User: What shape does this take?
Amino acid sequence: MRSKLVALAASAMLVTTACGNATAGSGGGAGRETQGITNTEIKVGSLAAITGPLGNQYAPVADGAEAYIDMINAEGGVDGRKIDMVAKLDDATNPSRDISQAEALNDQYKVFAVVGVATPLFLAGPYLGAQGVPTFGWNVNPEWAGPPSLFGEKGSYIDFTDPGPLPVAYLAKKLHVTKVGTLAYNVAQSQQCAVGDANSYKKYGFDLVFQDTSLPFGTTNIDADIERMKQSGVQLIATCMDDTGNVLLAQSIKEAGLHIYQYWPNGYDQATLSQYGSLMQGVYFAQDFTPFEAAATSPGMQQFLAQMHLHFPSDPISEVELAGWINADLFVTGLKAVGQDLTRSKLVAAINSITNFTANGIWPAQGPIDWQFAHTTRSPGPDCAAFLQVRGKAFVPVYGTPTDPFICINHFATTLPD
Assistant: This one.
């Protein structure tokens, strides 16, 4: 799914010229294989954009990872070893610092693994991959794909443009609309997201009557687009923008007196709803994980919410915290599979043999992550999404059932189910 990935659009505007690839180095070496391991401890670190223009979105990844680690440590750890988060480093939303902080985790703090990465500029990916450092993070960056030691929470492969039935084509059918549109920023990742939505619409026979992928990031006026929407008769707009752009669209539609369904890939969090609730009424979202509102269907989600409320009772729950939790879950699953004779290579091999990872039901059982595929292509299972709509002060699950919030469709299906 393309949801949440357009956070990359914002990152593209933060630097005008990205750094070159990180130095590959000479690989992990024999000494690195057991770095950070003792008979009683496994040292890990995290790396996030804690400060910088987007820090509030990325910083909480370590909270989710630590909550899971604390739960495991309270149960006695793994094979007699406690997991110790020895460093939580900040790349300050700077690509050069992202690389240097990853080097610091490996060389200075001598961690066994990096558990909890969230940054809009993951230029450290090539370095960590070349060094064979088991690395777990929020996959909103193309650098996750490829290296076998890099593990995104939803898999490590992203293809914005691949047409599938979910979420936008299926949503259009459920809303009984025929005229559809897309709106995106003029940066590559946002434009690719819009291409993917357009491809999905066209594949399933919807009339793409409106498309604009030229909006500057941070624009404050879309009056020209609103006029085009009015003239086109578009009934559903799927955006590939961040919360700021989505709110601008909703405000402009409301002021123009138009009645257009909206699908947002971002904004599924209570803080956003509390701030912009009057503009978000009726907006649709889709998640590839069990929604917080459907936690009763997922033991893993129930654990996550309970532990987050225990450790951070005053903080709103966010998707990036969930990503950190899933990262730690996968890390511990790999540790348990390896056993006492632990090395980096054995951990990576153990995880890459997992074919049905669901994080204890957070991911749908019908479409689990298959790590034999997930570094370089999509998993072979169906596409799955849990849909929600804003109603009043809540995100309300729609289209699924009380016992299963997910809609799952064969990725290559030529028709859409009712």
Summary: Residues 181 and 209 are 6 Å apart (CA to CA). Residues 15-27 have pLDDT under 50 and may be disordered. The longest helix spans residues 319-338.
